[in-house]
Amino acid sequence: MSRRLTLFCREMLQHRSYTQKVDVYSFCIVLWELITGLLPYPSMTAVQAAFAVVNKGARPIIPNDCLPVLSNIMTCCWDFDPDKRPTFSQVVKMLEAAEIEIMSNVRRARFRSCPRPTATGKD
């Protein structure tokens, strides 16, 4: 089982009934990984991370330089109460509304996990 699968939200880890809101939560874990180029909770085992998510409400730390619009999307998708998380349709609308801001900033961003090109254009 991959580490990401163990980071599903409390309703899945506690064997409660769950809906697509679990997938919304997981989507934003992947979004966080794309933004940071990191794995969440690197100092924890998968079991420790799952315990922290379920029992302590742990969430990955959003970098200070993250676009506020993306930070807001992740935060609402990670809500402890699945009923307060947006649907995927709502997430898509939020991303579409933020597209111009995201795209204009991506052009200026330097991704943490990507090597910087050299003067010759080669990595």
From TrEMBL:
The gene is LOC107005924. This is Serine/threonine-protein kinase STY13-like. SUPFAM superfamilies: Protein kinase-like (PK-like). Pfam families: PK_Tyr_Ser-Thr. Residues 1-102 form the Protein kinase domain. It comes from Solanum pennellii (Tomato).
